[in-house]
Amino acid sequence: MIERRTVFRAAMAAGSAGLLAACSGQTGGTAEVNQAHVPPKAQLTADPAVNTKDVSVVKPVTVTVKEGTLTEVKLTNADGAEVKGELNPEKTTWTSAEPLGYGKTYTYSAKAKGSDNKTAELTGSFATVTPAREVRATLNPVDHAEVGVAMPISVKFAEAVTDRAAAQRALTVETSTEVEGAWAWLSDRQVDWRPKEYWPANTQVNVSAKLYGVHYGNGAYGKADVTTTFTIGRNQVVKVHTPEHRMRVYRDGNEIANYPCSNGKDADPNLNTPNGTVIVMTREPTSIFDNERYGYTDLEKKWCCRISNHGEYIHENEENRANIGKANTSHGCINLLEADAKAYFDSALIGDPVEVTGSKANFPTTSDVMDWLLDWETWKSMSAL
């Protein structure tokens, strides 16, 4: 799309008195006619120009005058409603102050008084872009959430994003404490931001995704802006070294709990509790577990904290009491005694890190929550900018 800036000059029509004077042949009559036909000095320009198509809905519309001041500017939609706008202090530029609608026609009209005291006028219309598809995005954590120190910020799109750089440029993260972090695309529908190290405790975070009007490629555009404000809670980290059969909980680096546990079977890498840093994803007072391959369905367990989309949880398993603290016999979950599982459940926040070591297998990087399974250099390389 090529846009041209259009310049308008308003001509002053000659009155009948001026014409009579010109015909009389009296001195000064011709000068009056010439003066009447001199165009105003004020020059009005608009961006976008008259009849421009496919105009961005977020780029501000401007009306500018040279050699004069603006006296009136209106930008209206097809229903006649005016678009908000502001004049600069010199009254030489008017700028729209709100986004436009997709697939709409807008009309502007403006007047300016020039240094010669003559009035110049501008009128015209333009049309905004019509998306082939409007794509919705969601943002997590949600507003006012309190989360753990490993919680990533995640933007998910309803369909694949072709122009990832354009989408990423619309994303900003502001923190109350300086935090080094970066965006990384985990798929063509998801981009996450995580800090280089765990978040500082009690950090306030504001995220803005100004995605309305952003072209994702192939005619798809952002449907709406999304924002969130959340808080990082206390620093709590879970550490499990699977051969020890213990689950240790640390606050600010100090051990505050040490629970006996039974982890995934050591002999079978498919049943290990895998190595890696994951996060508490959900807190479920009860959960139903099914795995027909290993002979159980509709198995209900209490005080369950999901730690991956690979199937691992921290949960109560009184049926495995004989092995808790002694042997690794689960199918990948971290089994606790009921009282310990309840105590841990009550202490946990979504986004708390869980660090697992000592297993034969590593967590796969196929989950949509695998942010801490990647080293920092790899993470940064997954940015689109």
Write structural notes for this entry.
The protein is mainly beta and 385 residues long. It has 3 domains: 6-127, Immunoglobulin-like; 133-233, Immunoglobulin-like, CATH 2.60.40.3710; 236-373, L,D-transpeptidase catalytic domain-like. It contains 5 helices and 28 strands. The protein has helices at residues 16-24, 29-36, 164-169, 338-347, 376-381; strands at residues 6-8, 43-47, 62-66, 68-76, 85-87, 93-96, 105-114, 119-127, 133-135, 137-140, 146-147, 153-157, 171-175, 181-187, 190-195, 204-209, 215-217, 220-222, 226-232, 236-241, 246-251, 254-260, 276-279, 282-291, 296-306, 313-316, 334-336, 353-357. It has a 5-stranded antiparallel beta sheet, with no helix packed on it. Strands 22-21-20-28-23 form a 5-stranded mixed beta sheet, with no helix packed on it. It has a 4-stranded antiparallel beta sheet with strand order 10-12-15-14. Helix 1 (16-24) runs antiparallel to helix 2. It is elongated and about 105 Å long. Mean pLDDT is 91; it is low at 1-31. Residues 236-357 form the L,D-TPase catalytic domain. The active site is at 315 (proton donor/acceptor), 333 (nucleophile). GO terms for molecular function: acyltransferase activity; peptidoglycan L,D-transpeptidase activity. Keywords: Acyltransferase, Cell shape, Cell wall biogenesis/degradation, Peptidoglycan synthesis, Signal, Transferase.
